[in-house]
Amino acid sequence: MRAWRVNTHGGPQEVLALEEEVPVPEPAADQVRIRVGAAALNFGDDLLCRGTYQLRPELPFTPGLEVAGEVVAAGDQAGIAEGTRVMGVPALPAGGLAEYALADARNCYAIPPTLPDRDAAAMLIPFQTGHIALHQRGGLKSGETLLVHAGAGGVGSAAIQLGKVAGARVIATAGGPEKVAICRELGADLAIDYLAEDFPARVREATGGEGADVIYDPVGGDVFEKSRKCVAWHGRILVVGFAGGAMVSAPMNQLLFRNYSLVGVYMGEYSHRDRPFLDRVHAEILALYADGRIKPLIHAGVPMEGVPAAIAGLAGRATAGKVVVEVVKA
Ligand SMILES: NC(=O)c1ccc[n+]([C@@H]2O[C@H](COP(=O)([O-])OP(=O)(O)OC[C@H]3O[C@@H](n4cnc5c(N)ncnc54)[C@H](OP(=O)(O)O)[C@@H]3O)[C@@H](O)[C@H]2O)c1
């Protein structure tokens, strides 16, 4: 089969190789083989190529963390029938940037006929992450103020939409006027260019000096540091990711006297620990999509050949929303 492979670690444009004769992967007893219709790229794909992601599969491997397609083979304990259309998180090393990917059955979710592969692939990680972060971890309440960083990004664009659905007042930040305009189109009540403006001052001004109740932070670094200046009393800063590169820390005495919480969010662990909970999350997300209340923000569809440049663009802040790879069916 045709698959992108990483044979040695490095930048995606240096190390990704499109190989034509990769063996079709065989599912284990609790896995399925998916004929990939569409694969969505994630920031993690860049880190996977570089060997700096939290998962470090043995070389060679195929990246790709998010797919939609059809189950064409299933292990005898998988419990998913062949022919079922699913969206899923692939099991590395048989990732999604290939004609066929493997996925653990617990990381697959059935999708209705009305949901095209392109949208399904682009929805799974951003909307599950956003839902878990805002509700289960952040306890977001209607009427509260939610601040979403990198609001035009993959996970940020989903968090804006889910925040509005939850009845929050949403403030978004993004880098540059085009991305700021996208945040507004997604429903943000206020959008701030955090490369050009002092966002903590703008957030305090917009909240009568109180600050944001919940801060969704997939960036870290300087953005996290500044977030601590505009978090409300009883506020929750959701630590979602480190797209800015820098790990962060906060002085504990500030948590105490400002009475706010730092809350970790790791979507990838939930399928191991509480799949029934994720089933409820998935059902809610599908219902919101069916009602037209949420929609994945898709930056572009690219052919298989465009993958290395697309991953580099994503990691280099050149994308708004998800990049979806249209994988040619075998
Ligand atoms: N915790 C979880 O369960 C979970 C799940 C999914 C993803 N994540 C994490 O969330 C983060 C975002 O992932 P994503 O796939 O949705 O990516 P993305 O948001 O589509 O892209 C990252 C965005 O981060 C912003 N950014 C700020 N500083 C940056 C820098 N120095 N370099 C690159 N980007 C920078 C950019 O937006 P601006 O140009 O607007 O600043 C960029 O578009 C990643 O760290 C990822 O690992 C975590």
What can you tell me about this protein's structure?
The chain has about 325 residues and is an alpha/beta fold. It folds into two domains: about 140 residues, Medium-chain alcohol dehydrogenases, catalytic domain (Quinone Oxidoreductase, Chain A, domain 1, Alpha-Beta Complex), CATH 3.90.180.10; about 140 residues, Rossmann fold, CATH 3.40.50. Helix content is about 30%, strand content about 25%. It is built from eleven helices and 15 strands. Strands 3, 4, 5, 6, 7, 14 and 15 form a seven-stranded mixed beta sheet that branches. A six-stranded parallel beta sheet has the order 10-9-8-11-12-13, sandwiched between helices. A two-stranded antiparallel ribbon has the order 1-2. Strand 8, helix 4 and strand 9 form a beta-alpha-beta unit. The longest helix has 21 residues. The model has no long low-confidence stretch (mean pLDDT about 95). NADP nicotinamide-adenine-dinucleotide phosphate binds next to helix 2, helix 3, helix 4 and helix 11.
Topology:
Elements: E1 3-6, H1 12-15, E2 16-19, E3 31-40, H2 43-50, E4 67-74, E5 85-88, E6 100-104, E7 108-110, H3 117-137, E8 145-148, H4 154-165, E9 169-174, H5 177-185, E10 190-193, H6 199-206, E11 212-217, H7 221-227, E12 231-239, H8 252-258, E13 261-264, H9 270-273, H10 275-290, E14 298-303, H11 307-315, E15 322-326
Parallel strand pairs: 8-9, 8-11, 9-10, 11-12, 12-13, 14-15
Antiparallel strand pairs: 1-2, 3-4, 3-6, 3-15, 4-5, 5-7
Helix pairs in contact: 3-4, 3-10
